[in-house]
Amino acid sequence: EDKHNGTIGYPVRSVYFDSYADADFYDKLHGLEYRKKVRLRTYSPDSPTVKLEIKRKVGDSQEKKSLIISKEDAKELINLNYHVLKKYESETASMFYNIMRFNGLRPVVHVEYRRKAFIHPMNNIRITLDSDIRSSETDFNMFNELPILVPVEDYYFALLEVKYNAFIFKWITDLIGFHDLTRLSYSKYMVSRGIFERYMA
C-alpha cells in the first residue's frame, strides 16, 4: 500500500492546458493515434513545488515526462507566462517551453479527486482507485484551500486503474475477472470538460 494513502487516500489536483483551438481535446475525441496532454499536478495546495507533466500516447504505448517547478512558477504558467521555464536549464524544460509557447497553451480545466494507491516493486505494478472526481472550467487556482468544484461522476463511483511495465501477475487478472470488471477508456480530462463538450465542441 502507498505510504501516502492514510485512511481515505490522498488528494490529487491538476490543471490541464490546451491550445486555443483545443487541439488536444479534439485529438482525443476523434481517437487519433498520436495525442498528448499537458498538466500541472500537486498533492497539496501548500506544497512549495509542483509537477509539470506531459503525457504522450501513440496507440497503446504511453510516455510521461515531468519537470519539478516552484509553486510561484506554476502560478505564472497559469497566467500564461511561459518564460519562467527558461530558468530551468534542462532539455525537459526547453521541451515544455517550446510546446507551451508555440502551441499557445492555456489552462482549460482544474480537476481534483481522491486516490488510494497500491504498489508492488516487481515490474513497477501500481493499482489506483480514484473517486470523488470534481472539476471547474473557470477557476484554475489549484492552490486554493477550498476550491469550488463540481462533481463529474457519482460520489460513490471509483475508477480502478492498473499500470505495469511488461507483464502483470496472474492473480491480479484473476481478481479482475472474478469481479466481472470491464476494461474501458476513461479520461478524467475529457469528462471534466463537460461544459465545453456540451456547448462548444
CATH homology-level superfamily = VTC, catalytic tunnel domain
Number of helices: 6
Run of helices and strands: EHEEEHHEEEEHHH
Mean pLDDT equals: 87
Strand percentage:
35-45%
Number of strands: 8
- How many separate domains make up the residues? 1
Q: In this structure, how is the largest beta sheet organized? A: 8 strands, antiparallel
Approximate shape: globular
Could you tell me the radius of gyration in angstroms? Answer: 17 Å
Tell me what the structure shows.
By secondary structure, this protein is of the alpha+beta class. It has one domain: VTC, catalytic tunnel domain (mRNA Triphosphatase Cet1, Chain A). It is 23% helix and 36% strand. The chain has six helices and eight strands; from the N terminus they run E-H-E-E-E-H-H-E-E-E-E-H-H-H. A hairpin with a 4-residue loop joins strand 5 and strand 6. The chain is globular and about 50 Å long.
Quick summary:
With 201 residues, the protein is α+β, with helices and mostly antiparallel strands. The chain has six helices and eight strands.
Helices and strands in order, then pairings?
Layout: E1 10-18, H1 23-29, E2 34-42, E3 49-58, E4 61-70, H2 71-78, H3 91-102, E5 106-120, E6 125-136, E7 150-151, E8 158-163, H4 170-178, H5 188-192, H6 194-199
Antiparallel strand pairs: 1-2, 1-5, 2-3, 3-4, 5-6, 6-7, 6-8
Which descriptors would you attach to this protein?
single chain, 201 residues, alpha+beta, mRNA Triphosphatase Cet1, Chain A, 6 helices
